[in-house]
Amino acid sequence: MENQIQQEVRWVKRIRRIGVPVLVLYVLSMIVALLFEKMLLIPLMWSVALFLIFMGHTQYRLLRHFSTHPKSLRWLQVEYVDTWISAILMGTFMTTLLTTESLGFGIGFLFGIWGLTEKYRSRIIARQLKQYDPDIPTYDEVIERMS
Predict the structure, then answer these.
(1) pLDDT, position 3
(2) Rg, C-alpha atoms of the chain
(3) SS3 per-residue string spanning the chain
(4) Using CA atoms, how far apart are residues 132 and 23, in angstroms rounded to an integer?
(5) For all residues of the chain together, what is the average pLDDT?
(6) What is the distance between the alpha carbons of residues 59 and 139, in angstroms, rounded to a whole number?
(7) Of 20, 41, 115, 134, whose CA is between 20 and 30 Å from 30?
(8) pLDDT (tens digit, 9 = 90+) per residue, 15-67?
């Protein structure tokens, strides 16, 4: 199990290392899409949504090894589902905004409400995790500890 955790931490560090060049490429492609073809924003936003889902899955896979209580594992799953909902709303918002503006504004309203309540949801999840499993480390603590 320890070897698997270290392997996942190495994978996350590798992703973080190449994050800045990928971010620069992403911003440049967004600018090009805005200047020349706005429909290219749809696959760009869905790629970000898929990346969010992937990183949420990585976070869940890593933290479940440190969970000692079944209810804390359940709250880690709730956090993962929260990531899925955020990613799907973001991709759907951009797709509908560029194809059907009126529906896009409605989904954008939902996306905005979801984004505004993110801190509140993350505080509730963190509080519940600490209630059931007070010794569970955060994702960043696990990454730092395994360095």
Answers:
(1) 80
(2) 18
(3) CHHHHHHHHHHHHHHHHCHHHHHHHHHHHHHHHHHCCHHHHHHHHHHHHHHHHHHHHHHHHHHCCCCCCHHHHHHHHHHHHHHHHHHHHHHHHHHHHHHCHHHHHHHHHHHHHHHHCHHHHHHHHHHHHHHHCCCCCCHHHHHHHCC
(4) 37
(5) 91
(6) 7
(7) 115
(8) 888 988 998 999 999 999 989 998 999 999 999 999 999 999 999 999 998 88
